[in-house]
Design goal:
Helix content: 25-40%
Largest sheet: 5 strands, mixed
Structural class: alpha+beta
Number of domains: 2
Strand content: 25-35%
CATH topology of the largest domain: VC0802-like
Strand order of the largest sheet: 5-9-8-6-7
Number of helices: 6
Shape: globular
Oligomer: single chain
């Protein structure tokens, strides 16, 4: 089985019935391909910020250009996992982002594709939120979990037995509204 690891740094999802339009739209800006999950594309771009700026400019020049796009998530790291190793690997990876949170507000969001009944996203999210808070408090920081308008969202995207993690700071989400999590 061919692995996707290290070959993707963007995850995009299509609005219902817009899959064909989305792949045509994104292929102009990077190397994108479908996953085995309906409406989910992964891709590689040279520079996240430049890619987002290009999409924004096209939307401004041609309103509706981004209509097929449901969400876009920048991915900073990927790793392979099994159902048994996922919680530990994910905890290690997410703790690596704690220094960006410091005393700010955040939450961890897991979008799981595959592992139904074996990986419990909501429970893991809550555990990771607590773990990050505990680690930061041990350093004297005062982080908080905020689901309405956090300083930072740690986005975890699984595709089968591969995981991508990205960070969505508030400024990025405000500048590019298509960069979001559910």
């Amino acid at each position: 089985m061919e692995t996707m690891l290290d070959s993707w740094n963007i995850l995009a999802t299509a609005k219902e019935r817009d899959q064909r339009h989305l792949v045509r739209l994104l292929k102009r800006f990077g190397d994108f391909r479908w996953t085995r999950f309906l409406g989910v594309l992964i891709g590689r771009v040279e520079d996240h910020e430049a890619f987002f700026a290009q999409l924004q400019r096209h939307e401004e020049d041609e309103p509706g250009f981004l209509h097929p796009l449901a969400k876009l998530v920048p991915i900073e790291q990927t790793f392979a996992f099994t159902v048994d190793t996922f919680p530990v690997r994910l905890k290690e990876a997410v703790l690596g982002y704690a220094e960006r949170i410091d005393s700010g507000s955040f939450y961890v969001r897991i979008e799981r594709r595959g592992g139904a009944g074996e990986i419990h996203s909501q429970q893991l999210e809550q555990e990771l939120d607590r773990t990050v808070c505990d680690a930061l408090r041990a350093r004297g920081e005062t982080p908080s979990v905020d689901f309405k308008n956090p300083d930072l969202i740690v986005a975890v995207e699984t595709i089968g037995e591969e995981c991508g993690i990205g960070v969505l700071p508030r400024a990025l989400r405000m500048r590019y509204p298509f960069v979001r999590v559910p």
